[in-house]
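User: Structure with glucose-6-phosphate, tokens only please.
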Amino acid sequence: MDSPDLSEALYALEAHHGDIGDMTIADLFAHDPRRFADFHVVLDDLLFDFSKHRIERTTLKLLLDLAGAARLEARRDALFAGAIVNKTERRPALHMALRNMSGTPMFADGIDVMPQVLAERRKMLAFAEAVRGGALKSASGECFTHIVNIGIGGSDLGPAMAARALSPFVSSHLDLNFVANVDGADLADTLQRIDLARTLFVVSSKTFTTLETMTNARAARQAVIDALGETAVSAQFCAVSTAAQEVASFGIRDDRRFLFWDWVGGRYSLWSSIGLSLAIGIGTQNFEDFLRGGEDIDKHFLAAPLAANIPVLMALIEIWYRDFWDYAAQAVIPYDQRLARFPAYLQQLEMESNGKSVDLAGAPLDIETGPIIFGEPGTNAQHAFFQLFHQGTAIVPVDFLLAATSIAGDPKQHHLLVANCLAQSEALMRGRSLAEVEAKLTAQGLAGDAIAALAPHKVFSGNRPSSTLLYKSLTPRTLGRLIALYEHKVFVQSVIWNIDPFDQWGVELGKELALRLAPLVADPQASTAMLDSSTAGLIAHLRGLRGP
Ligand code: G6Q
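Assistant:
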């Protein structure tokens, strides 16, 4: 944050925050009949409503000045041009190449990556079709009916989330499973549900060294050997990785290895061969539509003026709350049951990317970065944590995601779902004053002292912000659009905060310590004298619980 322009833009926003502190969102609507018209953006069937926020035109102008001071457009163009944006790992972040449908050259390290991207995509989709259509048989000559993706983090959350989101598009004869946790229960429960003889395991790991994935992959291989014999392994396994050599050493045949590249971050890899299990489920046309959705947003991000650029607006509004209002959390509430895993997916995308406290040069930041992201589908969430949204002391801005029509759901039920979503954003914004509560209780016939006792509990302060993303229905293309919107939002924020959104060093320390502790947990005699007293005490109690 040492650029004078940036400091000036931040000061201007700080001063503006002081100026509009008392203004409510309801006031903003009351004073401006054009508010919705001016505070929404439409991109095909997708509408982004950002009118229910504590912002006015000046706020937007100042936030856009901030983006200008951070040289957002130049940084965005550098991202697409394959510049080394992941500074600490010295890599570009070119996941947009994976959804480039025209093959227009895109460069990493001066080399056009598109020929290899298109070739690998063709190879992966041909394999997916062979599995789906039954041309590719299991060791016993049967069609595959169960697919088990073994991966974790970026090699799990994307395909698992998308398989659920697009379940109506998954062939009914295919059962998609996802095993991630090193907790053996994850694999054991999956093995219970499937018929091994008709199961294809997809080992998904960028590095092919990840403890959880390799442990589960070895256990799955052993289960196949035990049930079907050693020779079945080559027929029942395939792999997705950047590490061709390690995949070969695991015993996976060349024609069953699907590669991607260093310039694809794990949490941005669903667009690559990491999407194999999804592609098997939904088929080539739907998978390509999903990629097209991502490409739609790339084009929008590159071409739309910043003031009408959805990921830019999403990012700037969140920065407004994080850095000037000190709101520490952001909720994502899909009123779309099949997006149940979308908040978890975004937790990784956003919190791993922007959960940083030093800038690109390694200097400590003097500004708050990524908020805590959480969410659950509505209406379920209304019956759980929405109480805090409406009446808690913390203010949590919400992104509502809503489909106009349901795929394969009852239309009447869908009307109720939509009404609930709209009601929540209205209630958060409008609130209910003490006078309104008292009038309501009086109309219900309550006496004066009963009203005085109850009324404060029924007041809603309102003035609680939300955005709504409204789309026609949850198709593969819509899902691609939603994911890419959030990806670019995260990137824009990283530019303003001047942090590296493509590394994740914060996950390393725990991994290292786990490796050091594993032998002490496994061996009841091993000394714990070098540990802190809490860790040593926990291990002692654990040993006691396990018995001799
Ligand atoms: C994502 C992270 C991380 C990664 C997993 C799995 O951006 O890098 O979540 O995806 O640790 O790594 P592998 O794919 O290498 O097994």
